[in-house]
Amino acid sequence: MANESATDKAKQSVAQSTAIAVQDAADNLRNLNTISTTAIGVALSELLATGDPKYIDVIEQAQKVMSKGTENFAELGAKAAEVAKKFSE
Description:
The protein is mostly helical. It has helices at 2-50, 54-88. It is built from two helices and no strands. Helix 1 packs antiparallel against helix 2. The radius of gyration is 20 Å and the shape is rod-shaped. The mean pLDDT is 91.
């Protein structure tokens, strides 16, 4: 009986840790998107004002940051779910 209690506590701890990891990844993604959209807005404003094509590169790089952040979030979420599932079996 004590062994079951220890197992249940371990499972609960793993579930909580994976949930925190996903929350942290969501915060990171939100921050990346905020920074990237701000950079895109500034670069677009400068592009329109100056016509300098270097701002197109800034926009493209910011879009890549957003895309990579989304990929990282999806990967972490999948791995967290995998870990949680292994402990719930």
